[in-house]
Amino acid sequence: MDWSSLSCSACVLIILFLPLGASDDRLVPGKPLSPGTTIVSDGGDFALGFFSSGSMPSNLYLSIWYNGIPELTMVWVANRETPVTNSTSSASTLSLTSTSNLVLSDGADSHVVWTTDVASSSSSSPVAVLLNTGNLVIQSPNGSRVWQSFDHPTDTFLPGMKMRIRYRTRAGERLVSWKDARDPSPGSFSYGCDPATSIQMFLWDGSRPVYRSTPWTGYQVKSEGEFLITNTSAIIISLAFVTNDEESYTMFSVSDGAWHTRFVLTFSGKLQFQSWNSSSSTWVVFGQWPRHKCNHYGYCGTHGYCDETMLPVPTCKCLDGFEPTSTEEWNNSEFSKGCRRKEALRCGDGFFALPGMKPLDRFVVVGNTSSKECATACGRNCSCMAYAYTNLSRSIANGDMTRCLVWVRELVDTGKLGTSTDSDTLYL
Ligand SMILES: *[C@@H]1O[C@H](CO)[C@@H](O)[C@H](O)[C@H]1NC(C)=O
Ligand SMILES: *[C@@H]1O[C@H](CO)[C@@H](O)[C@H](O)[C@H]1NC(C)=O
Ligand SMILES: *[C@@H]1O[C@H](CO)[C@@H](O)[C@H](O)[C@H]1NC(C)=O
Ligand SMILES: *[C@@H]1O[C@H](CO)[C@@H](O)[C@H](O)[C@H]1NC(C)=O
Ligand SMILES: *[C@@H]1O[C@H](CO)[C@@H](O)[C@H](O)[C@H]1NC(C)=O
Ligand SMILES: *[C@@H]1O[C@H](CO)[C@@H](O)[C@H](O)[C@H]1NC(C)=O
Ligand SMILES: *[C@@H]1O[C@H](CO)[C@@H](O)[C@H](O)[C@H]1NC(C)=O
Ligand SMILES: *[C@@H]1O[C@H](CO)[C@@H](O)[C@H](O)[C@H]1NC(C)=O
């Protein structure tokens, strides 16, 4: 992929299709943006403007989309829940106030439907700039950022955007799906950090978990995948985990010159890495979660697990020492009843190792232990059924460098991952 020629054709597109009266890449006080005009980032990759939802043409949403991609693809929407009216008599406007706030007002009755609501000292000449990363930022004259759209994700993560797990002032954010393919109002799916543990991510449908990521195993940078595009170029997606006193977050990046790539929660509840193939003019899906039926949350029932090493069709199995609760249902691929113990557990039976597993859900984290102390913590409590131990010394986390997980409740949602870097050894 020759990136320079691609961005050059993008420039030509901008010159050809930029509507008359459009400003450049920024908004200043006193010069509002109204429907029909757009702001285009310096570099031409993204545009900010109004779009109308296909299902309700009179509803307008302020949003950011890829400029120069023929399939209109939104990466951010400001007023998902409060569309403005597309009125020819009195236009809706987005304006920047002298107090460094963006304000979206409805044309019909000029009431404010959305604002950045930054409590800031009035700055003489703020500016709102759409950066070529797709980030809309409000800056003070000295260059400090007062607000940025990257801090308020909708259904899409872009390279360089922080997927916050926790931070000092707020809990982690969630991606929230669109209602359907054409309606940006909030749908039922969301994706974010598990508030109970802070070390794993969940995809929910309402409050019901649909998919759970593997708990963080201490990586700082992990290659999520390398996808060969031609025999000489590839999209390399890598994930970084950063934790400091202020916040913990993950972030993804793509190799230089790669196609436009985004991580999106689709309206149908799938997490996808998508890249734009400009030869075919389509979004190509490079990764999807949940990957298959079997690794939906708890699909294999209590004490069951999804064997993801069984290809092409992963299937449910019972953990060692367990058998299907109902063999008949199990034989009919109905796994919800899960598995039961073959023999009653006697306290002090000892542990056996199951390597290559995804740690189960509903664990208790025991701080600051060695692997021996972790085994003892579980072994001395008869209601403890399993434990897993990871030494996080390869991570940059400061303080406690160990992770001892113990399970004292029923064992749900695990999988056999094989040699994946995310896998752990479970001691049962
Ligand atoms: C608003 O409606 C007019 C027709 O009434 C249409 O031409 C225009 O494209 C709409 N604006 C947007 C931003 O969709
Ligand atoms: C920049 O200006 C803002 C107010 O406009 C002020 O709060 C901030 O401290 C300034 N930052 C620097 C680095 O001077
Ligand atoms: C890569 O593909 C091109 C044709 O698309 C071919 O000419 C070239 O020899 C290939 N290079 C390698 C290293 O396979
Ligand atoms: C991109 O599109 C071209 C043209 O349709 C196709 O030949 C190529 O396989 C596509 N690449 C990927 C990675 O999907
Ligand atoms: C389930 O399948 C196994 C092996 O295929 C068979 O031995 C067993 O009888 C079946 N059980 C029931 C209840 O259908
Ligand atoms: C973790 O591993 C490092 C080296 O890999 C070792 O120096 C350290 O003692 C280990 N920590 C614990 C608590 O086992
Ligand atoms: C075993 O663990 C359970 C659950 O954490 C706890 O309620 C119970 O007190 C523990 N028992 C002992 C003997 O530590
Ligand atoms: C971990 O435990 C050791 C003693 O077992 C103690 O010296 C150390 O301060 C503890 N570290 C943390 C981070 O709690």
From TrEMBL:
The protein's Enzyme Commission number: 2.7.11.1
Main subcellular location of this protein, as a coarse class: membrane
Enzyme kind, highest EC tier: transferase
Name used for this protein in its record: non-specific serine/threonine protein kinase
Catalytic activity entry: L-threonyl-[protein] + ATP = O-phospho-L-threonyl-[protein] + ADP + H(+); L-seryl-[protein] + ATP = O-phospho-L-seryl-[protein] + ADP + H(+)
Gene Ontology cellular component annotations, sorted alphabetically: membrane
GO biological process: recognition of pollen; response to other organism
Keyword Transferase: no
Organism per entry: Triticum aestivum (Wheat)
PANTHER family: BULB-TYPE LECTIN DOMAIN-CONTAINING PROTEIN, OS09G0551150 PROTEIN
Start and end residues of each Apple domain: 347-428
Top-rank taxon: Eukaryota
